[in-house]
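To make this tangible, this section ends with a sequence with its structure tokens:
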Amino acid sequence: MSTGRSGMSKRTGDLLELVLGVAGLLLLVYIGSFARLRADLTSEQRYTLRPATKELVEGLEDEVFVKVFLSGALPADLERLSKATRELLDELHVVGPDRINYSFVDPNASDDAATRNAVYDDLQKQGLRYSSIRLREDGAYVERIVFPGAIVTYRERSTPVQLLKSQLQAPDANMVNRSINNLEYELASAIRRVVATQRPRVAFLEGHGELSPMQVADITQALEEQYDVSRVRIDGRIDALSRKGEGIAVRVNSYDALIVAKPDSVFSDRDRYVLDQFVMNGGRVLWMVDAMNANLDSLRKNQFSIATPLELGLNELLFSYGARINNDLVLDRSCAPIEIFTQPYGDQRKLERFPWYFEPISVSESTHPIVASVDPVHFRFASSMDTIAAEGVRKTVLLTSSPASYAQRNPVRISLNMVELDMGFGKRSTPYMPMAVLLEGTFTSPYADRLPPAFRDDREVAFKERSTENAMVVVADGDVIANRVDAAKGMFYPLGYDRYANAKLYGNREFLVNAMNYLLDDKSLISIRSRELTLRQLDPLRAENERTLIQLLNLALPVLLTIGGGVLLHFLRRKRTNTRS
């Protein structure tokens, strides 16, 4: 009788233990639904938002809705991009549950071709670009249209976001990794655009032989995502860049920033004065100026040329602000290639690739946000620079030549035969010559002691001798902003595109966008862009050689662990039962 009571008591105790365990688990789950505990254990903090992004989301006054079109049947790389986008949006939603919401839509969901085409046309009208990819379905390859992008909507305004940074080729792992690196920046930038009621104004200067709109089309598109971009001519007009309002003692700039992109003719004294007063009144300037008249097109025709100083009339301005572009050309062992026809074999001319020392590739070692985490920047016929002592001006060198480099002084003989010569970098190098410099502080006008008193004191002129806190970037190369143009096809290539690799290799675009962000005090965008995630790829050779073992481990190991756990639990229960007995 006691054995029965003991057995009944044991069963009752086990049942009570089970009920209490389940109740405790349910209570824990219920409490956990109210608590958000998140831990990012990745080395690069992959799942941690930058403070600038959190601040942006927390400052939203209304809901931002993101509609992503990376859904449905996708190849592995695009599926990875889709997953990363969803994870980022989840993180944004955690920061602002009532401010960020999203959905994923498959533009190929309909079985009707006419309906799908209507969806494609609508997405293109909204500004999204499509990619054509090949998928294997039912043992055959099929072409499928995908839109690797999103539409961000805030109240009545919408803006497109291209999530995949295409480089004129099919998506691959490196391209997708680059796109994942930029996801937070792209979405944060899109939210800023759609929320902003007024955007800064940026103008390309023209009238002095500057690069044409087609030659700067790529950087123009990049800047237009954040700023209102236009073109302006001075033509000696004092009101070209600023205006004098009634009852105001100073002039007010019509633009927030100005881009001077590779002028090739002299600036009149009046144009220089207008430029100077734009700076004195707080205007930011991105200077990209050639000191020498070197030209690759004429070199290909004549096999050699002589580069001489290019007289622009800007030296005095830049000198006054704290920088000097030297009359020389930088030769660098770290350089881009060039293809040249060499000695023919029979009737065939042979095209070979050589290092072209006049096109330096600058790998920044600076931690400044303009150049931190930016890919190498490609220069073409660049000059060296010196920083000049100027009261109240701070100088930061952004980009330099490599340790194996030197400058050839004016005049410079340029010949295609130089690719076969020993340039002697080990004997006469001048390492780390500055080629791009940031100037910050209060600038002094070079016209301070040169103007007639009547002009200087004219209230309509409103001459200003010294600027307030200001900044500018000076680059000793005009081609750093120029994208390659195919005139026959009427198209342009991405800035930083290398025609030999048929891909975007260089960070010119990111460098210039960062420079403009910094000049216009958008430092939060730079901090977001500087994030870098590491693509950890499997070793393809090892994966192929050990394919059977890997498959066996993936299939058998979970089963073995489950069985082992069950056996261990069984022995523990038996041991506890024996102890009670």
User: Anything to note?
Assistant: Residues 544-581 form one domain. The two ends are 16 Å apart (CA to CA).
